[in-house]
């Protein structure tokens, strides 16, 4: 692993487009990048790790503004030493768990319609039909 990355290389390694990296710097999600004498941005491995964390938190639905306090922690910091942040991440985790449970319920319902398994599966809707013909697959 190299010690320094251009913005193009950082984008390739993290999957975040170059313009998005610049935007994240402008709004304070990412710290301002170091600069070479020619003013080109230089990213270090720790910067790429932060970018990957942003991607991960974004995939969970966390708004960018809510990420900022977590991104200020150093790698290896014990979040439990920050009670407010610890509580926030636990709340966020609970929301994600609820979403996963809801999506699993929907997936089970679709499976019951498509492959005829678990007829007791519900989609969380009252008075739902037991089977939709258009979802049935012919063997």
Could you characterize the architecture of this molecule?
The protein has 139 residues and is an all-alpha fold. The termini are far apart. It contains 5 helices and 2 strands; from the N terminus they run ααββααα. β1 and β2 form a beta hairpin. The chain is 52% helix and 3% strand. It has 2 domains: 1-60, Orthogonal Bundle (Multidrug-efflux Transporter Regulator, Chain: A, Domain 2); 78-139. A two-stranded antiparallel sheet has the order 1-2. The longest helix is centred in the last third of the chain and has 32 residues, at 83-114.
What is the percent of helical residues? 40-55%
How much beta, percentage-wise? under 5%
Count of helical regions: 5
Query: Largest sheet, described in full?
Result: 2 strands, antiparallel
Strand tally: 2
Low-confidence spans: 131-139
Biggest sheet: strand arrangement: 1-2
H/E order of the elements?
HHEEHHH
The number of domains is 2
Q: Tell me, what's the shape?
A: elongated
Q: Average pLDDT, to the nearest integer?
A: 85
Structural class designation: mainly alpha
Q: What's the N-to-C terminus distance?
A: 51 Å
Could you tell me the radius of gyration in angstroms? 22 Å
């Amino acid at each position: 692993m190299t010690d320094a990355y251009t913005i193009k290389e950082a984008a390739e390694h993290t999957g975040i487009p170059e313009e998005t990296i610049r935007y994240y710097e402008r709004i304070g999600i990412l710290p301002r990048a170091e600069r070479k004498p020619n003013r080109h941005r230089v990213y270090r491995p720790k910067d790429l790790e932060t970018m990957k964390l942003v991607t991960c938190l974004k995939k969970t639905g966390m708004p960018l503004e809510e990420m900022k306090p977590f991104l200020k922690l150093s790698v290896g910091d014990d979040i439990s030493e920050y009670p407010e942040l610890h509580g926030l991440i636990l709340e966020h985790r609970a929301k994600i768990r609820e979403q996963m449970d809801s999506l699993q319920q929907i997936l089970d319902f679709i499976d019951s319609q498509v492959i005829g398994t678990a007829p007791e599966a519900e989609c969380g809707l009252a008075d739902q039909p037991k089977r939709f013909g258009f979802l049935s697959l012919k063997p």
